[in-house]
Amino acid sequence: MALKFKTVTVTIPQTTGPLTINQDVSFGRRIRDRNAEVALKAFKLDYVGGPRDGDIAQAGVSLENVGDEAVEFKIRPTIPPPPIPARFPCW
Fold first, then answer.
1. Whether 72 contacts 84, CB under 8 Å
2. pLDDT digits over 5-20, tens only?
3. Which end of the chain is less crowded, N or C, counting CB atoms within 10 A of the terminal residue's CB?
């Protein structure tokens, strides 16, 4: 049984809240063993202006389907909305 790894970069759009991204990766030949897995290697947090309270981003990945030549997976990132600036009345 041959083992093959593929690294795929998925760009998450600038948005807030929950999001679902469906993606697949082709191996270019028939997948004989249906024991595929997916793993989240890393994700980058890049906040402008430095960290703030509530700046917690999460991402999860799940295997959806193993086809004849491709593996389908789903990414579910959650990006918090920016904080609402405090406004104080001036007299």
1. no
2. 888 888 878 777 778 8
3. C
Q: How far, in whole angstroms, is CA 19 from its chain's centroid?
A: 9
CA atoms within 13 A of residue 15's CA, in its CB half-sphere? 11
Query: Nearest 5 degrees, angle CA 26-CA 57-CA 78?
Result: 65
pLDDT tens figures, 52-87: 655 667 788 888 888 888 888 898 887 777 666 656
Whether pTM > 0.70 for this model: the answer is no
Nearest to 22 by CA among 38, 35, 34: 38
CB 19 within 8 A of CB 74: no
* Residue pointed to by tokens 């406004």: 87
Question: Which amino acid does the sequence have at 43?
Answer: F
Domain residue limits, the chain: 17-43+56-79
Residue 33, classified by CB atoms within 10 Å of its CB into exposed (0-12), middle (13-18) or buried (19+), is exposed
